[in-house]
TrEMBL record:
It is found in: Cell membrane. This is histidine kinase. The keyword Transcription does not apply. The chain crosses the membrane at residues 12-33, 159-179. Its EC number is 2.7.13.3. Residues 241-459 form the Histidine kinase domain. Residues 180-233 form the HAMP domain. It is a multi-pass membrane protein. Keywords: ATP-binding, Cell membrane, Kinase, Membrane, Nucleotide-binding, Phosphoprotein, Transferase, Transmembrane, Transmembrane helix, Two-component regulatory system. It comes from the Bacteria. GO terms for cellular component: plasma membrane. GO terms for molecular function: ATP binding; phosphorelay sensor kinase activity. It comes from Cohnella lupini. The lineage of its organism: Bacteria, Bacillati, Bacillota, Bacilli, Bacillales.
Length: 464
């Protein structure tokens, strides 16, 4: 037996549902018809028995009803015996008319013969007064073989059973057809997905006109393809940019190595100069590699149990004295926490130090002489916010959306003496998001920049 695929399950479900509806409907129709025919059958028997009662109440009919008996004695029951043969012509096949006394004994009977194999299906009774017999009971019955109602029920039952068999076949065929037509768009989507290659993620699934579940499925997959395409493109650019960043210092080191080979032995000045350049570029490569490793480490999933807490105020007090040398001609304005209490955040101390160092050093680097860098701390609704505002050159609106891209540098930081590798803000954003925080930048060119860092507040019992 083949595997129960999704299409087979859908076909079977549709067929089963259709068959269940057909069975319930047929059962309802059969029971309703059976109840109606039974009522009709009893009504017909009652009507016929009422006619017999009217006929018996007629005085002129008594000679036909009471015939001389064969018994002895003066009792009228011995002189006259009831005879119902006059009603034989009025009885249908399978019907039987009986007259019973008050004790249930049969006084007279006519019609279908009694048989243990014949089941009495319907009956009607009437009480009447018969001269000489006081109260007697007329009983009119019909057996199951000759009952119109039973015959109609059997016929309808056979027809409904045949209808169920036909409905079952149609349900199976219809289920297969409906399942195939319903799954056709999904099979088309599967074919389109299989045609998409890793080296070309520009293709998108065709969406149906009706905005139904299939539309949502295709749209969701297209959104996933967009994210995947962007991720692959960022990865390619990252590799290209990293290669370029490493290629430049290697080319400089190679060039100075050739200079040392040619003139270094004869000219100590050339040797010293080349060694200084080589040391400088080696340091740049080490810093770049360290930043790449930090970025890769920051993108790894954070273990659930790894919840570290540090004091942000203490981190700032350690960092700020070390940033004075970055740009001594810029004023650093730091407003400590108003209450003087520790500002606890859910982030390791080394990570918070790295984040604040990147932001504060950038603000100091790109603020001109006589400018100010202000740092403010605020607690609100379970979060601690740090804002770093400078009066520097600012960032243009065109460059602002790309500020967190890896290896991206603004026009003001393109030179290698002042600008870094272009990884600082990317690392900062990754670290903040890894620990549930966020970073936002608001900047106006020529007026300055404000960086807002939001941390999740830590609990006092985790104080380190």
């Amino acid at each position: 037996m083949g595997t129960w695929t999704f299409s087979r399950k859908v076909s079977a479900s549709i067929a089963a549902a259709t068959l269940i509806v057909a069975i319930v409907t047929s059962g309802f129709v059969y029971l309703t018809f059976k109840h109606w025919t039974e009522r009709q059958e009893v009504a017909l028997l009652d009507s016929k028995l009422k006619q017999f009662e009217l006929k018996m109440s007629d005085v002129s009919f008594l000679p036909s009803l009471l015939h001389p008996g064969t018994g002895t004695g003066n009792d009228i029951r011995n002189i006259f015996k009831p005879d119902l043969s006059a009603f034989l012509s009025d009885l249908d096949a399978g019907q039987r008319l009986e007259m019973l006394d008050r004790n249930g004994q049969v006084l007279a009977e006519v019609g279908s013969e009694k048989s243990g194999r014949k089941k009495i299906e319907y009956r009607a009774e009437k009480d009447l007064d018969l001269p000489g017999y006081d109260s007697v009971k007329l009983l009119l019955t019909v057996d199951s073989e000759h009952s119109r109602s039973a015959t109609a029920e059997r016929l309808v039952g056979r027809l409904l059973l045949l209808g169920l068999l036909i409905a079952a076949g149609m349900a199976i065929v219809g289920g297969v057809i409906v399942a195939r037509s319903t799954l056709k768009p999904i099979r088309r989507m599967i074919g389109e997905v299989r045609s998409i290659r890793a080296n070309d993620l520009s293709q998108r699934l065709r969406l149906p006109a009706a905005k139904d579940e299939l539309y949502e499925l295709g749209e969701t997959f297209n959104v996933f393809l967009n994210k995947l395409d962007v991720s692959f493109d960022q990865q390619r650019r990252f590799v290209a940019d990293a290669s370029h960043e490493l290629k430049t210092p290697l080319a400089i080191i190679e060039g100075h190595t050739h200079m040392i080979q040619r003139w270094g032995k004869k000219s100590p000045e050339v040797l010293d100069e080349s060694l200084a350049f080589m040391m400088n570029e080696t340091r740049r490569m080490k810093e770049l590699i360290a930043q790449l490793l930090l970025l890769a480490e920051s993108e790894e999933p954070l273990p659930i149990e790894a919840v570290e807490v540090c004091d942000l105020k203490m981190t700032l007090s350690e960092l700020l004295p070390q940033t004075v040398h970055v740009n001594p001609e810029v004023k650093l304005d730091y407003d400590t926490h108003p209450s003087g209490a520790a500002a606890l955040i859910r982030m390791p101390a080394n990570a918070s130090y790295q984040v604040l160092r990147n932001i504060v050093e950038n603000a100091l680097k790109y603020t001109p002489k006589g400018g100010t860098v202000s740092i403010r701390l605020q607690e609100k609704e379970g979060r601690i916010t740090v804002s770093v505002t400078d009066t520097g050159m600012g960032i243009s609106a065109e460059q602002l959306p790309h500020i967190f891209d890896r290896f991206y540098r603004t026009e003001s930081s393109r030179n290698r003496t002042q600008g870094g590798s272009g990884l600082g803000l990317a690392i900062t954003k990754t670290i903040m998001e890894r620990y549930g925080g966020s970073i936002a930048i608001d900047s106006t060119q020529g007026q300055g920049t404000t960086v807002i860092l939001q941390y999740i507040q830590g609990l006092s019992k985790f104080t380190i």
